[in-house]
Every structure is written in C-alpha cells, then in structure tokens.
Design brief:
With about 160 residues, the protein is α/β, with parallel strands linked by helices. It has helices at about 30-45, 65-70, 90-110, 125-130, 135-155; strands at about 20-25, 50-55, 75-85, 115-120. About 40% of the residues are buried.
C-alpha cells in the first residue's frame, strides 16, 4: 500500500504556510513584464496567507546572489525576471547560470525557492508567460515556493 499524500494530478500542498515570510527577488530589466510577474506572485502569496517583501537586483544573473545574502532571514524565495534572447551567447550564460545558482542554493542550503525567471525568444513569448490571466509564471513560481516551504515545515527543516 502506498503512503503517497499527493496524486500525480493534484497540485502540491501549501498547507501550513500562513504567516511564512517570503522574499521576492526581482530583476526589472523589462519593467512591464516584471510588473506582470509580480502581480501573479503577490496574489498567490497573499491568497495563501503568507507575507512578502520585495527587493530589486540589476538582472537575472544577480538573483541567486541576493537570495544567498538573505538566506537566514526568510522562509522562502521567489525569483522573478525575464531574459529575452539577443544576438549573442550572453543569453545562454545568463539563463544557465541563474538557474544553476538557484538550484545550488535549493539543494545545498535547503532553501525553498520558486523559479520565475522566464527565458524566451521574444517579447510576445514573455508576455504570454508573464500575464496572470495567461500562463502566470509569477504565480506559478510563488506556488512552487510555498509548496517547498510547506515541505520544509512538514519535515521540521525550519
């Protein structure tokens, strides 16, 4: 008999996150897109009774570093930004290294992080992913963060 508490089609549980302190770390390189990501993230955090603060960093590359600096002060983190492919390989470096940095923090330091750094080919793709009424990647990143905070609480890793 399985002891599984979630089904493959169920959304991850976010019970027990009321009052959790979440830091949203955002890159505002594309300010209008960042605003859409923030809207979805803040709505999801508030809907679940968690509290949030926001800080701004220069770009997506700096998000993992800011989270590392704040690691001891929050229950979870939401990384928000947008990287649009340009004409050089800089896009690949920023996408890969920001994702690797977030994963390293999550695995090596038990941090609850939702990754909402969208990486796209063009602005149309960015808007489709950022708008709360469309793919709502900001809200999805917040939901992932809260689910990881709930798991930390479940296993006593506060």
């Amino acid at each position: 008999m399985s002891t599984r508490t979630e089904t493959p089609t169920a959304r991850p549980a976010v019970a027990g996150v009321k009052g959790a302190r979440i830091l949203i770390v955002e890159s505002r390189y594309y300010a209008d897109i960042a605003d859409a990501l923030i809207e979805g993230a803040e709505r999801e955090i508030g809907k679940n009774g968690a509290l949030c603060e926001r800080i701004v960093v220069p770009g997506a590359f700096e998000i993992p570093g800011a989270i590392a600096l704040a690691a001891d002060h929050y229950d979870g983190f939401v990384a928000l930004g947008c990287v649009i492919r340009g004409e050089t390989t800089h896009y690949d470096t920023v996408c890969e290294e920001s994702a690797r940095g977030l994963m390293d923090l999550s695995i090596h330091y038990d941090l609850a992080i939702g990754n909402g750094i969208i990486t796209v080919e063009d602005e149309d793709q960015a808007w489709a992913r950022a708008k709360p009424e469309e793919l709502d990647k900001g809200g999805g990143a917040a939901k992932a963060c809260l689910a990881m905070v709930a798991l930390k609480h479940r296993w006593g890793l506060e």
